[in-house]
Amino acid sequence: MVTHAQHLENYEQWLQEFAAKLHLSVKDNQLVLPPHIGEGSLSAHTISPGLSYLIMNFRSDEDIELIREAGNEPGFSISFGDEIRLSDARDSQVLKIPAGTEVKKVFVFSSGKVAAQFLPGELLLQLEFLAREQDLASNRTFINLAHREALKEIFAIRADDPLHQVKSLALVLRLTEKFLHSFLRQETQVAPRPLKKNDLESMRHIEQILSSRLEGFPSLESLAQEVFMSTSKLKNIFKQVYGFTLYDYYNKSRLQRAKEMLVTGQCSIKQAGSEIGFSNLSHFAKAFKKEYGMLPRDMVRTR
């Protein structure tokens, strides 16, 4: 097992110390894992003093335990993966990665001074409470479509891209902004009733179904049966948590998938439309333009 314990003040410094623990070196802010530990890399960058980020994109072939020791100064760490976790830098944290695990995570660290400099006082207090609460399920902080889109773009950046650092920085900042915007919107909403943890877990399950299904929108009845809810309850809670109706979320998810296929050149425009359930090419083009402000053929020309 690889075990690394460190006090967190800067992710770029963290990566250097983690590499030293493995008797490896960091080159161009990137640590490439050796075959006996895994395959892939970790990269870290300092945006400004007190603000840094770490990108993990690897498969682990050995058990890894990363321990964040409790700090003395106020600060926040936000991790983005299958879910979002916000923690206070003054608390200790343990990340266990079993062998065989594929890790795709983004971490952002901000000192308390930087957070106070850029965030409104009320929002800062809300974040501090959430970080101390350490129960994100009750605070509805889930990966939504905007977060998922930014994460996919981050992990799709090629290491040999001469602009990969610039692209990573822009996308990490966008991801952080999306999180803060989602958090602020949720905090200012007037909830019709308190949301139970089980209901929120059910919404996460439904969101995963909608974001992975391409061939057609499932019936409301089948979705409701998945989480043992009435259709009306499902519709109301999903809209409250994610800000979209079930169909709107599904439609945005599949159009995002089509956009990815077109940008990467995986298939033709007709194939992309068919892949996400459009039998009529003109209907696909109309829906695509409504979502992205351009036709599929214009998207292909820009790649």
Quaternary structure state of the chains depicted: single chain
**Biggest pleated-sheet summary:** 6 strands, antiparallel
What topology, given as strand order, has the largest sheet?
2-3-4-9-6-7
Please give the radius of gyration in angstroms. 21 Å
Mean pLDDT: 86
Order of helices and strands: EHEEEEEEEEHHHHHHHHHHH
Poorly predicted runs: 135-140, 187-192
Strand and helix map with partners:
Elements: E1 2-7, H1 11-21, E2 30-32, E3 38-48, E4 51-60, E5 64-69, E6 75-80, E7 84-88, E8 93-97, E9 102-111, H2 112-118, H3 121-133, H4 145-156, H5 164-188, H6 197-212, H7 220-226, H8 231-242, H9 246-263, H10 269-275, H11 281-292, H12 296-302
Parallel strand pairs: 1-5
Antiparallel strand pairs: 2-3, 3-4, 4-9, 5-8, 6-7, 6-9
Helix pairs in contact: 4-5, 6-8, 6-9, 9-10
Give a verbal description of the structure.
- With 303 residues, this protein is α+β, with helices and mostly antiparallel strands.
- The protein has two domains: 2-188; 197-302, Homeodomain-like (Arc Repressor Mutant, subunit A).
- 49% of the residues lie in helices and 20% in strands.
- The protein contains twelve helices and nine strands.
- The protein has helices at 11-21, 112-118, 121-133, 145-156, 164-188, 197-212, 220-226, 231-242, 246-263, 269-275, 281-292, 296-302, and strands at residues 2-7, 30-32, 38-48, 51-60, 64-69, 75-80, 84-88, 93-97, 102-111.
- The strands form two sheets. A six-stranded antiparallel β-sheet has the order 2-3-4-9-6-7, sandwiched between helices. The protein has a three-stranded mixed β-sheet with strand order 1-5-8, with helices on one face.
- A hairpin with a 2-residue loop joins strand 3 (38-48) and strand 4.
- Helix 4 runs antiparallel to helix 5 (164-188) and helix 6 (197-212) packs across helix 8 (231-242).
- The radius of gyration is 21 Å and the shape is globular.
